[in-house]
Write a structure and sequence with these properties.
The protein is of the alpha/beta class and about 190 residues long. It folds into 2 domains: about 5-110, Ribosomal protein L30/S12 (60s Ribosomal Protein L30, Chain: A, 2-Layer Sandwich), CATH 3.30.1330.30; about 125-185, no CATH class. The chain contains 10 helices and 6 strands; from the N terminus they run ααβααβαββααβαβαα. It has helices at about 5-15, 25-30, 45-50, 55-60, 75-90, 125-130, 135-140, 150-155, 170-175, 180-185, and strands spanning about 40-45, 65-70, 90-95, 105-110, 145, 165. Strand 2, helix 5 (about 75-90) and strand 3 form a beta-alpha-beta unit. The protein is elongated, with a radius of gyration of 22 Å. It starts with 6 loop residues before the first helix and ends with a helix.
């Protein structure tokens, strides 16, 4: 039977080995945060993709959202749009790094308390759009200017993605800008 350690022994052990840390592995996975405080997260690869994930914008607007945390290994330019959105939505922002971080989490939107969230992980954009029946040409070109037909396809099947594209304007047509669907017909 194991005897309970005295307070002095506990303090000596903490002095030698450092303070006991709860759920260390979990905190190393979510950029230093507890899983129950994470509203949504993206992998490093997802953060580096062109365009904004609507799920992260929705997470930033969650009533309990308080902070956006980005892995310091991600270039600032890749996370810039998310940082801008965090500021617009009144969230604190910080970049973190630790050699102890595990996994591929690159960005988290967190609360300062536990939140009840059904799914914290965000499905990759390409998979989501493919499931919705969006054409590969549109999927592969976030940020592209779209003709009315492609714009309508996106509006009907994935309206949350419209912010990641723009519609070809009259001026664009005059100067010869073509939709990505027309460029691929050559």
């Amino acid at each position: 039977m194991r005897e309970k350690r005295s307070e002095l022994e506990e303090r000596l052990l903490q002095g030698i080995h450092g303070k006991k840390e709860l759920k260390r592995e979990e905190r190393n996975r979510y950029l230093g945060e507890y899983e129950e405080r994470v509203i949504r997260y993206l992998t490093r690869e997802q953060v580096r993709e062109k365009g904004i994930y609507p799920e992260i914008l929705a997470a930033m607007r969650h009533p309990a959202a308080r902070k956006l945390i980005v892995d310091r290994n991600i270039e600032l330019g890749a996370a810039n749009e998310y940082i801008k959105l965090a500021r617009e939505n009144g969230l604190q922002f910080k970049r973190v790094y630790s050699p102890d971080f595990k996994g591929d989490v690159g960005l988290v939107v967190v609360s300062d308390q536990a939140v009840e969230v059904e799914n914290r992980e965000v499905m990759p954009r390409k998979e989501q759009l493919k499931e919705k029946g969006i054409s590969d040409t549109i999927i592969e070109n976030p940020g592209a200017k779209l003709c009315n037909q492609c714009w309508q396809e996106l509006r009907e099947k994935a309206p949350e993605e419209l912010r990641n594209y723009s519609r070809i304007s009259f001026l664009d047509r005059v100067i010869g800008v073509k939709c990505i669907c027309k460029k691929n017909e050559k």
